[in-house]
Amino acid sequence: MNSRMTLTIGGLLLVAATLGGCGGSNGYMSPASPTPAASDVVITIVGMNGSLSFSPNPATVKVGQTVAWKNADSLSHTSTADAGAFNTGTLAAGATSSPITMATAGTFPYHCAIHSSMTGTLTVTQ
Ligand SMILES: [Cu+2]
Q: What's the confidence (pLDDT) of residue 114?
């Protein structure tokens, strides 16, 4: 009895996997959100270079969108809002922060908490 049930479930999983595979080829019609699990916007941490440390800079997102910072440098960095609205914490070389939801409109200057010369601006619009 148990083995029969297992076989039935296995068959259903096989069907589901097959359908999912077929659907994948036409499931990406929206260019605005190619990877649903990732953040809406990724800002790259280029390295210690003043206002060119972050790219793009300035960056603009809409309220409710998520932003992640990707550290492309060989040193650890952070993205820390000057007034505390967001903070990625320390990002090791090559690491990407968790997506941070920007819930409030405004202009948010930010910097690297490890290297204060690294500055950027994030604008959140309605
Ligand atoms: Cu830094």
A: 98
- Between the CA of 45 and the centroid of ligand 1 the distance, in Å, is 8
Q: How many helices (H) and strands (E) does the chain have?
A: 1, 8
Give residue-wise pLDDT tens across range 17-76: 444 444 444 445 555 544 455 899 999 999 999 999 999 999 999 999 999 999 999 999
Cα gap 108→30, rounded to integer Å = 29
Q: How confident is the model at residue 55, as a pLDDT?
A: 98
In angstroms, the CA 45 to CA 27 distance is 31
How is domain 41-125 classified at the CATH fold level? Immunoglobulin-like (2.60.40)
- Rounded to 10 degrees, the C-alpha dihedral 27/31/36/40 comes to 180
55 CA from centroid of ligand 1 (Å) = 14
Grouping H, G, I as helix, E, B as strand and the rest as coil, residue 54 is strand
